[in-house]
Amino acid sequence: MESAYFDPYDFISDDSSNESVSEVQDEDYDMASSAGSDGTQSQGSGSSASSGDAMSISDVASSFQEKKNRVFSPRPRASTMSSYSYHSSEQFRTPSPSNQSLTASMRETLYREEYGRELNTFSDVYRLPADEEEIDRLEKQHNMLVDIFGAKYPPPMGVALRQGHYEPTKKVLDLGCGSGAWVKDVCRDFPYCEAIGVDLVPIDDSDPDFPPNLRMEIDDLNKGIEHFYDSFDVVHSRLIAFGIRDYRRLIEHMTRAVRPNGVIEVQEYDFRTYTRDNKLIPANTTDPLGTYPWWATFLAHVREGVAKSGGDIRAATDLESWVRSHEALTDVVYRDVYLPVVPGNCRRYQEDVYTRMKDDVMAFLRSLKPLLMGSGVSEQRYEYLVHHCVRELHESETPQYVRMQCVYATRRPDVLLEPLPPVE
């Protein structure tokens, strides 16, 4: 029977590739895995990339309007893991609000407009939009990453969420849940768990398919999550460094929020660009435009903008060392995943993945306008960078990658942690 539970770091073997693809894989190995707890490396398979028709940045809006006509990854069926037969007979319990939960009267105060986009009013650190167009981008991005990873969840998650007769209800916490795509998948695939998604704006719960075992909490993670301590079996975050001042402190909070033998999973990227050979492209904001590839130069501006806003731009680089050195975490597994943001002649994945990657990058370029212009980049420079990035995205034969750094670990049951000292 089909199961929705997979290992996201156990990539598809090259043995399943067709001959035409295997001929070019050695020259374009765009997904690398560094040694994890088992010291092994894995590879994936794919097919040729589409060069794509040239698009302008203004085409993104019309592309967004075609949402219902686009092809998405199929929604997975509910998992058929045998552990589900050992669930508690207890009905779903809605957790009591711990900080701030959405009310109708709050909605008008949650958004502000800047540079033509809606941003949250809760945090001045996170300066990406919170509007419908951005939520749509994040939803599609989640589906794309599932296809690239070949999976949704780390292996220990199935064990952590196995529900026994006399155990407390299993609980999942998604920090910076964005569109809620990941946590909604969890609620459907593990229907006997309870889940909370935390973000600066609410998930739209008007959808008839909104999971009944999911609750939303509006909160700024920079203020701490002490009210979540010792409450969850899985704690997850992905691509939230844009809005986190001190990511190492957040790891400390996550470790205290997870129960003994529970799992934490964190995925971030370092706001840098890499070549086909996984070598860093040393782009910056001071050299004349055109010195380095346009995407690499654009991302250098993003990195500088995130730093000016207070985001932790070193989080991805330090994730592994923080988790491995933590006294309360064990069975640590780390992997690098190189994502072809400028596909070029990359031949790693199915053609559909490259099409969706281009759509994601186009929407991402638009989403970054408030961050960049708010950090001092002129509108003329922003539009000039975007113009050349779009052209490079569709015309360049040279791929460029971002490095997504992924780590998961298990909470040791024999280590007691003291409360964190207050922020000075």
UniProtKB/TrEMBL annotation:
Q: Which SUPFAM superfamilies match?
A: S-adenosyl-L-methionine-dependent methyltransferases (SSF53335)
Q: Where is the signal peptide?
A: none
Instruction: Give the source's domain of life in one word.
Output: Eukaryota
> What InterPro entries does the record point to?
SAM-dependent_MTases_sf
Q: What is this protein called?
A: S-adenosyl-L-methionine-dependent methyltransferase
Per its UniProt record, what Pfam families does this chain match? Answer: Methyltransf_23
Q: Spell out the Polar residues composition-biased ranges.
A: 91-101
Spell out the residue ranges making up region: Disordered. Answer: 1-101
Gene Ontology molecular function = methyltransferase activity
Q: Compositional bias (Low complexity) at which positions?
A: 32-59, 79-89
